[in-house]
Structures are given as structure tokens and as C-alpha cells.
Design goal:
- The complex is a heterodimer of chains A (159) and B (179).
- Chain A is mostly helical and 159 residues long.
- Chain A is built from eight helices and no strands.
- In chain A, helix 1 crosses helix 3 and helix 2 crosses helix 3.
- Chain B is elongated.
- Chain B starts with a helix and ends with a helix.
- With 179 residues, chain B is an all-alpha fold.
- Chain B has six helices and no strands.
- The chains are: A mainly alpha (159), B mainly alpha (179).
């Protein structure tokens, strides 16, 4: 049975955290993140008729959200980066948050494809699910993830 | 940071929370940030071009110019608008494919088509303007120099546009190859 707008909004509400994380990973400024969030929500709604309930909502959502984040045009803006010292993030200044900020900085340095794969891994998806969403073989997922994790460890060590 | 620590740091990341009405307000095409910009640009161009054509017809004796010259001028403006409409249609197109890789390949195909359409429409619009001026202006040495400057500027613009598209296509091919 086709999902109506209200059901879609409820599911979106429950899963919006991951969309915000993807926006934060793929865009540097708050304005660009907000634009990307709107673009992803628009694409999810537009692609909903093609959603087959053989897949879970979240699996389908990861595919649309990550494809949109990678392929949407970035607006030409001055390269102003929001760092940990900005007012909206000052509240998160204790040690735990510092560790999370360091992780995010390392993730942002990865290529677009690597960001997509590591996002799916960090979301606790199995290699089989990651392969199904990304379109690469399960073996290749394992190889690539090992390389990406190694790269992150290096970035964290050097950062 | 160990793998489990990585996962828990990721999962504990605080994220903003939009309310249900806020989410509803951004669901539709009218709220789309890029589409909104293109619509605004189309409206401005439509108003601007209409105003120009009215002024041109009344103040610059458009009615005394040959019909084909007027048609060329209108065609040039319609081509510029067609370019924006093509961009609008590309942006509003939904994500296709069953995997991220397929979606990106599909998007690359769309981008290639739009890149060709984009550059071709600019060239055609410039050609229409060129023939229009050639047909209605009597040239002397000074005007030929002016025309040469305009031609160079148009060529620079078309070259820059082509390079922007080649860069975008290259970037997308690299992302696909990286999967």
C-alpha cells in the first residue's frame, strides 16, 4: 500500500538525525547544510513512489540521501569553515565532544565515496547491506572499509 | 580510536531536530532552495526581456527592422530562458537507480546531456544576437572593433562555461570510479 504524506513525515521525523549527519559530513557551512537537508527531503519525497517495501525505509533513505549529497551541486560560496570555536558549538567543549569533533574532522577529509561507505558502516549496517546500497561487491566493501578505517586512524593520529 | 569507539562517537553525535510542521514545509518543490533561485531568475529574465522588447520595439524602431531580425532577437532571449528551464528540469528530477553507484551513473548521464544543451544554447543565443546586430547595424571601423571585443567576450564566456562543465563531469566520473 502506498505511503501517504503523514506516514512519510513520521518516518522522516524518526530518521532525520542521519540526514543531519550526512549534511554535516558533506557540507562545510551551516547554510549549505540546510540547503542539502532540504534537497534530500525533497528527493526522498519525490522518489517515494519508487520505494519498494522489500527494503526497509532506512536502507532506501541511506541510498537516496547519500546519492543526493554526492551529486547535488554545491553553491559557489567563499570557503568559510565552521570550526569548534564557533558560538553554536561552544557548548560542546568538554572532552567527549572534542573527541567527536576530531572524528568528524577526520571523516570530512575523506573522498565522497569513502564518506558514503563509512557512514553506512558507522550506522551499523552489515557488509552485505552496504554492498546492496552502494552497488559494489561485498568483498570490495570489506577491502575498502579496512583501507578507510586505516586512513581515519592515521588522520586522527596526525590531527 | 577503536572501531567501537568510532561507532559510538558517530551515534552519539548531537543533531538538530526539525518539528513535523517544519519537515512538511520543506517537502515540496516550492521550498526547494535551488529551484526557488532558478524560478526567481526566470521571472526576472521574463520581466527584463519583455521590458527590453517593448522598449526596443517602441524606442529603437523595432517595427521598421526586418521581421527575421526581430525573430532572431526574440529567439536569443527565448534560448537564454530555455537554458534556465533545462536547468530547472534537471534539478527537480528524482534520484533513479537501485544503488548509489547506479544513481550516480544516471546523474552523470543527465549532467552530460545538460552540459551539451547548456553550451549549445549559449552558442545559439550568441549566434542569434550576432546575426541580429549584423542585420540592423551599419558597421564602420569603430563598430567593427566593438564587435570584435564582444565576440572575444562571448568566446571567453563559452570557454569558461565549457570548462566548468568539464570539471563537474570529471569530478563525478572520479567519484563513480572511487566506488
Amino acid at each position: 500500500m502506498a505511503m501517504n504524506e503523514s506516514q512519510f513525515l513520521d518516518l522522516l521525523d524518526a530518521h532525520q538525525g542521519i540526514i543531519h549527519k550526512i549534511c554535516r559530513l558533506y557540507r562545510d557551512s551551516r547554510e549549505d547544510r540546510e540547503d542539502l537537508f532540504q534537497e534530500i527531503v525533497f528527493q526522498l519525497w519525490k522518489s517515494l513512489p519508487a520505494f519498494q517495501e522489500k527494503a526497509t525505509f532506512s536502507t532506501w533513505m541511506y541510498r537516496i540521501a547519500l546519492s543526493t549529497a554526492i551529486s547535488a551541486f554545491r553553491k559557489q560560496r567563499p570557503d568559510i569553515r565552521y570550526t569548534a570555536s564557533l558560538p553554536d558549538e561552544l557548548a560542546e567543549s568538554h572532552e567527549h565532544d572534542e573527541q567527536r569533533e576530531r572524528l568528524f574532522e577526520a571523516l570530512r577529509k575523506l573522498s565522497d565515496a569513502d564518506k558514503a561507505l563509512i557512514t553506512l558502516y558507522l550506522e551499523n549496517l552489515s557488509y552485505q547491506e552496504i554492498a546492496r546500497i552502494s552497488g559494489i561487491s561485498e568483498n570490495n566493501v570489506g577491502v575498502k572499509l579496512n583501507r578507510i578505517k586505516h586512513k581515519i586512524q592515521q588522520l586522527l593520529k596526525n590531527g | 580510536m577503536e572501531n567501537d569507539a568510532l561507532k559510538s562517537a558517530w551515534q552519539d553525535l548531537p543533531t538538530p531536530q526539525k518539528s513535523n510542521p517544519e519537515l512538511k514545509s520543506i517537502l515540496h518543490e516550492s521550498a526547494h532552495p535551488v529551484l526557488k533561485g532558478i524560478r526567481r531568475q526566470l521571472l526576472i529574465e521574463l520581466v527584463g526581456f519583455t521590458a527590453f522588447l517593448l522598449v526596443y520595439y517602441d524606442f529603437f524602431d523595432g517595427d521598421r527592422k526586418p521581421l527575421y531580425a526581430n525573430m532572431l532577437l526574440v529567439s536569443a532571449m527565448l534560448l537564454v530562458m530555455a537554458h534556465n528551464i533545462a536547468g530547472y528540469l534537471l534539478t527537480r528530477r528524482g534520484i533513479k537507480g537501485n544503488t548509489i553507484r547506479q544513481s550516480l551513473e544516471d546523474r552523470l548521464g543527465d549532467m552530460k546531456t545538460y552540459a551539451i544543451v547548456s553550451v549549445a544554447l549559449r552558442v545559439l543565443a550568441a549566434a542569434c544576437l550576432w546575426f541580429f546586430f549584423m542585420s540592423v547595424v551599419t558597421f564602420d571601423a569603430h563598430r567593427y572593433w566593438l564587435l570584435a571585443v564582444v565576440v572575444v567576450l562571448v568566446l571567453v564566456q563559452i570557454t569558461a562555461l565549457s570548462r566548468i562543465w568539464l570539471g563537474r563531469l570529471k569530478r563525478m566520473r572520479e567519484v563513480i570510479a572511487d566506488f
